[in-house]
Amino acid sequence: MRKEYNVSDMPLAELEQSFIEQYHVYLKSDLGLKPTTVSGYLKCLKYVVKIAFNNGWMPRNPFSLYQYTAPNPERSFLTEDELRRMMTTELRYKRQDYNRDMFLFSCFTGICYADMASLTYDRIEQDAQGEWWISGNRQKTETRYVVKLLPYALFILNKYRGLTGDGRVFAMSTLDSIDDSLKNIARECGIDKQLSFHLARHTYATTICLSNGVSLETLSKMLGHKNITTTQIYAKVTPPMIDREVTMLREKLATKFSV
Asked: How far apart are CA 224 and CA 115, in angstroms?
C-alpha cells in the first residue's frame, strides 16, 4: 500500500477490485512468491473481506467479480526405492524405529495421523477368508473409509498389539514430534525429501495403489474422500505407471493389428 497508494492502511469499505488485482501482481511479480503462497495470501484477504461484507461493514464484495485459480500443490511421495530404504535402514534410536513404523503403517494403509492416533481395536475385523480390515469415519470429514490390510501393515499391527493398555492400537507422539523425527530418519535413510507424516498418505495413494493398478474409485473409498475429485489430486502419472499401461495396451493390440 505504501508503494502504490502512499498510505500505511486503508478502510475495508474503500477496497476495490483493482486493489486485489494489483495485490496479486505485487505478490507474484514484485515479491516473486510461489503460486501456492500467492494463493494463500489471497485466500486470507478474501476470508477477511467475506466476514466484513457479511457483517455489513463493506458496501460490496470486491472479490465477487475477481477470479483466480488456486494451483493444485505438488504432492510429494516416496518412490518404491525410497520406501524400501525407509523399511530396511538401521536406525540409532528406538524412538526413531517406532516413529518410522507409524509412518510406514500409514504408507501401507493411507490412514492419516489423526485417525491412526485414535484408532481402536474395535475398528479392526477379520473376514471369513482370514483377511484383516480397518474401517471407520475420518475425523476430518466424517467420511467412511475401508482399508484391507497389506502384509507389512499387518506386521506392524501385530508388532505393537496390546502394548497401549487403553484400547488404542498405537501410542503416538504429537504430530510435530513425529515430523521432526522423520526429517532425521530421512537423512539416515539417504532420502532427499522433506518428510512429513502426511507424505505417507500420498505414498499409499501413488506408489502403493495407483502405480499398481488400483482404480481411482477404489482408492477414493479407501482414503475416505467425499468425492473422486479430491482423489484425482493424488493421481500423479509416474514413469512406472506409463510403462505398465503401455505394455498392457501393446498386448491388447497385438491380436488386432500386426506388422
From this structure: 11
